[in-house]
Write a structure and sequence with these properties.
The chain is α/β, with parallel strands linked by helices. It has 2 domains: about 110 residues, 4-Layer Sandwich (Metallo-beta-lactamase, Chain A), CATH 3.60.15; about 130 residues, Rossmann fold (3-Layer(aba) Sandwich), CATH 3.40.50.12650. A 7-stranded mixed beta sheet has the order 3-4-5-6-7-14-15, with helices on one face. β3 and β4 form a beta hairpin. α1 runs antiparallel to α4. The chain is globular, with a radius of gyration of 20 Å. Bound molecules: zinc ion. The site of zinc ion (ZN) has 4 residues, from loops.
Length: about 290
């Protein structure tokens, strides 16, 4: 939702991917007005600027922008991931003169574990919890992480995935656009699976761990987020470091792969990351 603020404006024209429109409508249950659905690789000309939307690897339908203005090229990453996941292909580097890059995890101590190892840990924890008579519940973003964790259980285990209705809607949206996620809605067939305690449950991360335990006393709750690296499990029983963003080593690698003349950093550790780049001889400044 933090990428779709402009959708609230019903008058202005919005250029966006068709996947983003579909996901926004699924989560908010509101219609997007005056949006122009675009595909990756498509070029739009606005005010003599040539804009191309490219895959940013963050979540389903997320885009970065490549812009051309006469002889200057820009790459605006937005939120991005520079590693393949079970559901997304990584962003690709692109030579540009000016790079505007998100730096959510732009601090050297943010180095994520190998994704495959995290997948194994999540599947192992869920299997162990079920064997001990518990109900494994994951708190995660309905867009992005929910699809990745659903696919993880579909591919690595035979444990059924039960989804909160919000996640049922986002997963169904992805399936309607070519995905093949297998899951059961909490309010329908999922109810019986929960009673039998032979499934995993996915809830939006807006839910509170303590509150869920009053409804499901056998629940063991895990969070799934990159922030678990620094902030641990908070009120949950467990936490897994899985992010839809690039970590610090990937941010550095991405910048170098784009060969920019100037880098502007934004979000998170913008200043720290810009200073690190300067020490590596790359011209950089924080935008905000
Ligand atoms: Zn994001």
């Amino acid at each position: 939702m933090d990428h779709t603020g402009a959708f609230i404006d019903t008058q202005k024209i919005k250029y966006t991917t068709k996947e983003t429109i579909a996901l926004f409508e699924a989560v908010s249950q509101k219609k997007v007005r005056n949006a122009v659905p675009c595909s990756y690789g498509q070029t739009v000309t606005l005010h003599q600027l040539e804009l191309e939307i490219i895959n940013s690897g963050h979540v389903f339908g997320s885009g970065a922008l490549y812009l051309k203005d006469k002889d200057v090229t820009f790459l605006y990453t937005g939120d991005f991931n520079f590693t393949d996941s079970l559901t997304q292909k990584a962003i690709q580097t692109r030579d540009c003169d000016i790079l505007v890059i998100e730096t959510t995890y732009g601090r050297p101590d943010f180095a994520f574990p190998r994704r495959d190892d995290v997948y194994d840990s999540i599947a192992g924890w869920a299997a162990k919890t079920i064997m001990e008579g518990g109900l494994p519940v994951f708190l995660l973003y309905p867009v992005g992480k929910a699809q990745e964790v659903t696919r993880l259980f579909n591919l690595l285990t035979s444990i059924p995935v039960v989804t909160h209705p919000t996640i049922t809607r986002t997963n169904s949206t992805v399936n309607a656009m070519g995905g093949d996620l297998v899951f059961y809605d909490l309010a329908k067939e999922g109810e019986e699976l929960i009673r039998s305690k032979s499934c995993v449950c996915l809830f939006p991360n807006s839910f509170n761990a303590r509150g869920l335990k009053t409804v499901y006393p056998d629940a063991r709750i895990a969070t799934v987020t990159g922030w678990a690296l620094n902030f641990g499990r908070r009120n949950a029983d467990s936490s897994f470091v899985l992010s839809s963003h690039a970590d610090y080593p990937q941010l550095i690698q991405f910048v170098k792969g784009c060969h920019p003349k100037k880098v502007y950093t934004m979000h998170g550790y913008a200043e720290i990351f810009a200073n690190k780049l300067k020490r590596e001889g790359i011209d950089a400044a924080p935008l905000c």
